[in-house]
Specification:
The chain has 453 residues and is α/β, with parallel strands linked by helices. It is 49% helix and 15% strand. The protein has 17 helices and 13 strands. A 5-stranded mixed β-sheet has the order 1-2-4-3-5, with helices on both faces. A 5-stranded parallel β-sheet has the order 7-6-11-12-13, sandwiched between helices. It has a 3-stranded antiparallel β-sheet with strand order 8-9-10. It is globular and about 60 Å long. The structure holds NADPH dihydro-nicotinamide-adenine-dinucleotide phosphate.
Length: 453
């Protein structure tokens, strides 16, 4: 670790104690940026990274609501407005009991670089609540969303801050949030993305993160003259990102054998077909059930409950070529990374944000596999959110083909930026350096132009 990185990390830890995920995200970026600072000391003297790690604004608020029994419930709401150097704050809302300030700051920090990589004019932000939508009725979710927006609405706007979905926030929640915003503001604007198709949403937005992660992976395979035809893939999660990752992998001729939720995972040795994926979509998006039911429905699958005492996740311990972590942060540790390599995996594309621990990332890089960090691989979601904003501004809706083509071009462009930048900074094939440096330069130059603000 260079002196710059160790001094920076000492400050970050002292100023932001109890935020391990934020420390982890900053450390990964700071190590890549050491390469930039050797060549461009002007960024260091302008304290660009020190400024980026301090959010422009943090909003925390009470979210009171009434449950179906008439009892008062209180959650905490957050919005981190991290960086607006290249556009309005943009990033999802996460509703999950694990949500806290440190997790949202790591996500907002990553979002700054990711949004820059998309080539679209979007700053970085993130928000959410420790509210758990699991087991809540639609009415409870609606009342919670309305209360959340009753405070958030004064801080956001189509030219200020444009939230979207993330874990626990899908079409249903975006609908309730948008309805309340519209009522409070008395205006119909593109203030949220991931909206329904009949009221300002974009085609391909639900599919975008998963499809984008597979498009990025296809570009990586192409550098070795390969395609997905016949490849065996491990996918974790069974939510929005996981579902559309599986769909696109099937389109491209791959075989997918796993899916999971926080209770456990299924391994289907015969592969998840389109019909089985339809079952998963109905199970997760409408019935809001558990992935265990997949193995009850399809006898070729085995369900294994999650066991946190194991110290590793057996989902990553199956023979395969490619892995698509698409559930949550730190779901692949060092042991899991070793298991992946031992089983033949040589491509990892992160649909989730920061799903690999720093130990796991080091193992992937040391072994020179095709490893795409989340800020590059899952940028398709926010990219199509950016396209949704454009469509709202011009009051037009593009076709499915048009949006999908733009998504594919954006993923190709991010891939090229990563490859070219990694090469230019003397670490060819290192997509971590490519994404961190490629994302940083545009933001840093904008900040230099705009003075000390
Ligand atoms: P969903 O809420 O639709 O699905 C999340 C999935 O991950 C569920 O299967 C969930 O299981 C599982 N999961 C969540 N938390 C945990 C946990 N602590 N341990 C184990 N499993 C867990 O979310 P998304 O699919 O939208 O998001 C998945 C990942 O992708 C996140 O890291 C998110 O930040 C990232 N991402 C999402 C984007 C988007 O457009 N939606 C864009 C870019 C990144 P369970 O139901 O049991 O909780």
């Amino acid at each position: 670790m260079s002196d710059f990185v160790s001094e920076l990390m000492a400050q970050v830890k002292a100023k932001n104690p109890d935020q391990p995920e934020f420390h982890q995200a900053v450390l990964e970026v700071a190590e890549s940026l050491s390469l930039v600072y050797e060549r461009h000391p002007e960024y260091r003297s302008a304290k660009i990274l020190e400024r980026i790690i301090e959010p422009e604004r943090v909003i925390m608020f009470r979210v009171p609501w009434l449950d179906d029994q008439g009892e008062i419930q209180i959650n905490r709401g957050y919005r981190i407005e991290m960086n607006s150097a290249i556009g309005p704050y943009k990033g999802g809302l996460r509703f999950h009991p694990s949500v806290n300030l440190g997790i949202l700051k790591f996500l907002a920090f990553e979002q700054v670089f990711k949004n820059s990589l998309t080539t679209l004019p979007m700053g970085g932000g993130k928000g959410g609540s420790d509210f758990d939508p699991k087991g809540k009725s639609d009415n409870e979710v609606m009342r919670f969303c309305q209360s959340f927006m009753t405070e958030l609405f004064r801080h956001i706007g189509p030219n200020t801050d444009v939230p979207a979905g993330d874990i626990g926030v899908g079409g249903r929640e975006i609908g309730y949030l948008f309805g309340q915003y519209k009522r409070l503001r008395n205006e119909f604007t593109g203030v949220l993305t991931g909206k329904g198709l009949n009221w300002g949403g974009s085609l391909i937005r639900p599919e975008a993160t998963g499809y984008g992660s597979v498009y990025f992976a296809a570009e990586m395979l192409a550098t070795r003259g390969e395609t997905f035809e016949g490849k065996t893939c491990l996918v974790s999660g069974s939510g929005n990102v996981a579902q559309y990752t599986v769909e696109k992998l099937l389109d491209l001729g791959a075989k997918v054998v796993t899916l999971s939720d926080s209770s456990g995972y299924i391994y289907d040795e015969e592969g998840i077909t389109r019909e089985k994926l339809d079952f998963v979509m109905e199970l997760k998006n409408l019935r809001r059930g558990r992935i265990k039911e997949y193995a009850e429905e399809f006898k070729s699958a085995v369900y294994t409950p999650a066991d946190p005492t194991l110290g590793y996740n057996p989902l990553w311990d199956h023979k395969a070529d490619c892995a698509f972590p698409s559930a949550t942060q730190n779901e692949i540790n060092g042991k899991d990374a070793e298991n992946l390599l031992k089983n033949g995996v040589y491509l990892v594309s992160e649909g989730a944000n920061m799903p690999s621990t720093l130990d796991a990332v080091k193992i992937f890089l040391d072994n020179k596999i095709l490893y795409a960090p989340g800020k590059a691989a899952n940028a398709g979601g926010v990219a199509v959110s950016g396209l949704e904003m454009s469509q709202n501004s011009i009051r037009l809706q593009w076709t499915r083909e048009e949006v999908d083509n733009r998504l594919r071009q954006i993923m190709q462009s991010i891939h090229k930026t990563c490859v070219d930048t990694a090469e230019a900074y003397g670490t060819p094939g290192n997509y971590v350096n490519g994404a961190n440096i490629g994302g940083f330069l545009k933001v840093a130059n904008a900040m230099m132009d705009q003075g000390v603000v």
